[in-house]
Amino acid sequence: MIRPTLIVVIVVLAIMVTGLFELKYEVRELDQEKGRLLAQIEDEREALRVLQAEWSYLNQPERIEALATQHLRLATPNARQIAPIGAIPMRPAADELAQVADAEKAE
After folding, report:
1. Is the dihedral of CA 69, 75, 76, 77 positive or negative?
2. Are the beta carbons of 74 and 68 closer than 8 angstroms?
3. Backbone angles phi and psi of 88, in degrees to 5
4. Which of 6, 13, 31, 96 could lock 92 by a disulfide, CB 3.0 to 4.6 Å apart?
5. Is this model's pTM higher than 0.90 or not?
């Protein structure tokens, strides 16, 4: 009577030991993956800091002004170029825009 119980206990113990080893290696693999992901997150944060610093440098008003002066060749506006608000044409109403669109389709 002791022998069948002993065999069952040994089989159950062997299954538990096998499961424990599999669990150990799975946990080790997940821990390594966690380490890789944390390193990747840190790399991405560093890249983000570099991009933010570059963005700050590129958006300096003095730099933009120098580039605009160099490439756009803009002149200072004079008083004759400034118009009153009443001189700006109003945006057409939605029905007028629809009529224009229908007219363009008909052509």
Report:
1. negative
2. yes
3. -80, 125
4. 96
5. no
Rama region for 103: left / alpha / beta (φ>0; ψ in -120 to 50; rest): alpha
Token reading at 73: 């060749």
CA geometry: angle at 72 spanning 67 and 76, to 5°? 100
Q: Which residues fall within 8 angstroms of residue 53, CB to CB, at 6 or more apart? A: none
Helix, strand and coil percent figures for the chain, each rounded to 5? 80, 0, 20
- Give the model confidence (pLDDT) of 35-88 as tens digits: 999 999 999 999 999 999 999 999 999 999 889 888 988 888 888 888 888 888
For residue 92, what pLDDT is reported? 76
Residue with tokens 């790399």: 43
For tokens 């946990």, name the residue. 27
Which tens digits make up the pLDDT trace of 85-106?
Answer: 888 888 778 787 788 888 888 8
Instruction: Give the three-state DSSP class for 64.
Output: helix
